[in-house]
Structure formats: C-alpha cells, structure tokens
Amino acid sequence: MQLGLFLVVISLVTLVAESYVVLVGAAMPDERSAAVVSPVVLALLMVCGGLFVNAASLPPLFALLNKVNVFTHGFSALMRNEMAGLALHCEPSELVGLPPPANLVQKLASLGVAWPEQRCPVEKGEQVLEQMALSASISSSVAALLLLLLAYRLLAYIALSRRLRSPLKR
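User: That's the sequence. What structure does it adopt?
Assistant: Structure tokens below.
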C-alpha cells in the first residue's frame, strides 16, 4: 500500500504542476510573460511548501498561500506515508545527553541519585511529523491535490476561452 500510495501522490503532484503551467500559459498574454511569471511563483511555492521552511513558522499570508500549494499537500502526504508508524533507532554516537563519568556514577548511586540516561532524540515517525507541523491526513492531502488539479484546469480553460474569444462576437 505504501508504494501504491507513493505512486498515486507523485502522479497527482505531477499532474497538478502540469496544470499550473497550463494555467499560467493560458493566462499570460505571451510566452515571454509566462516564462517570467511561472518560475517565480513556482519557486515561491517550493520554498513555502514545507520541505525548506516549517509551515508553522510562516507568516499568515504564506500560510494562506499554502492552501493552494501543490508542494505543501504533496510533501505532507508523502511524509505521512513514510513516517506514520515508523520506529526509529539511534546509534550510540547519535544519543543525546552526556555520557556518565565512570567514577561519578558509583558515588551518585550510593547517594541515591541517578545520572540522566542518554536517549534518542527522535524515536517515532510521528515525532518527525509533529516537529514539521504536518498535521493533515493523507486522504485530505490527496483530496486537496485533486481539487487543485480540477481548479487549475478549470481556470486554465476559462483563461484560454477568454483569450480565444473572437473580437467580432463581442
């Protein structure tokens, strides 16, 4: 199921990104304008999508932009697919906390004081999802991607039909 869901999400992200390009191409008056606008907006969407910047730390305007961001929904679905239910294990070099000094541990134990144990900073995939502020479920992310696909295609159709409308029929 994980591989199938991964392929579905990747396919949807590709289709939505393609729809975005079609929308920009249909909405812009010429290909030069589309070639300037498309990468600028796409780069902004990429930066705010959750991979580079935690969504919880974004200003309100960008948080609103993430509602129509293909990368936000795609990244959230893929991370939830990979991380949910995952148990993580640390190597001894990855543990957090000071190792106990050998001569001090026995003295502290005789006083009834325990040295704090070293621990793994992240033990479950859910902790990663929480730290990255990815709270959306897979189904809601996939539904958002489908809605974006339909909305971008519909807006592209409207823009193209307005552009191709004959001046004699007005």
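The mean pLDDT is 87.
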